[in-house]
Specification:
2 copies of one chain form a homodimer. Chain A is mostly helical. Chain A is 76% helix and 0% strand. The radius of gyration of chain A is 20 Å and the shape is elongated.
Chain lengths: 204, 204
């Protein structure tokens, strides 16, 4: 009967699912590293499968197209980063807004941002990639905005607060871009300190 | 004798220089459009020469390498944009800071930003391109900062003012990125309005 499994079936199936999940995860992580290091032109399913130690066939079973693999990878790592960001402030809205702003800005300075940037820029010229990346960007952007509002304790029912937070996240993205070719950490730290002062007044 | 030219020589030389300058300018403009539309991978000296209606040999006479052509192009158009931005506010420091912020943000939403972004992202993976683009970015960044300080009437001798302006330009860059795949004009306008209020207070 459909839906009924014997204990024997179940025992065999569960580790198989685990293996499948582990393979998928290795592929996603390898895909983000590959994008960050080699850009879109140098990132193919074959290169990622090799890097993850997975056969090309297995990779294609999980992700039928190159576009599927790389958008899923950026989404997966973005979700991991969001979870890690919330975990930094387990109490929710933090007293120390500078720490929250600094952690938000950190989202845009690592390999994930570098990978996402390669994907965005490629999508701007490739019609095939564009719809998936546009949807991904909107989804990740909404989630990051929600986290920022929560952790900053921002009251979006007050006029201007929503746009204040949006502008902060735009600044964070711009800081990520400024860090692409050179280590911009020292300047970035001073900008974050100053904008934390401005935001503290604006959100008070 | 070296350095001495007859009137006849001069009459012949001047129009030739003009023609050469016009060719150079056509190449630079074609290079920026090409980068913005097709990205780094689709942008070669041959494609640009064709677009500009110039022979490949003439293009290579002006720009020995692909890297020379595209970095010179982004620099040239950035300087044109800077001049145009200053011309918008002929009196220097403007009363209306919102108008200045809006004009600064506009620098990052057109074809020039798109072209520069392709160049930055390519330089992050291509060692050959990196030093030239890093230098270009630093130079254009300093010039934009100087214009922003002048037009906003910002007093950088006051603590925090320099970082306030830097953060604003980072925000402008981030807004440019947010406009890459979708038309973000309506949201951007609201962010600019709100941050003009905050910056007016901060710079007062």
């Amino acid at each position: 009967m459909a839906g009924v499994t014997t204990i024997g079936d179940r025992a065999e199936r569960v580790p198989k699912q685990d293996r499948s999940r582990a393979t998928r995860q290795r592929l996603l992580e390898a895909a983000v590293s590959c994008l960050a290091e080699h850009g879109w032109a140098g990132s193919t399913v074959t290169v990622v499968a090799e890097r993850a130690g997975v056969s090309r066939g297995a990779a294609q079973h999980h992700f039928p197209t190159r576009e599927d693999l790389f958008t899923a990878a950026v989404e997966y790592v973005a979700e991991e980063r969001s979870t890690a960001l919330r975990a930094l402030f387990p109490q929710g809205a933090a007293e120390d807004r500078r720490a929250v702003i600094s952690a938000l800005v950190d989202l845009y300075t690592g390999p994930l941002f570098r990978a996402a940037l390669h994907l965005w820029v490629a999508a701007s010229n490739e019609e095939q990639l564009r719809p998936q990346v546009t949807e991904l960007e909107a989804h990740v952007g909404r989630e990051t905005h929600r986290i920022a509002v929560d952790l900053l304790g921002a009251d979006e029912s007050r006029p201007g607060v929503r746009e204040t937070v949006q502008g902060l996240l735009d600044m964070a993205r711009g800081l990520g871009l400024a860090n692409l070719l050179t280590d911009d950490a020292a300047r970035r730290d001073r900008v974050v300190t100053q904008w934390a002062v401005l935001l503290n007044e604006a959100l008070a």
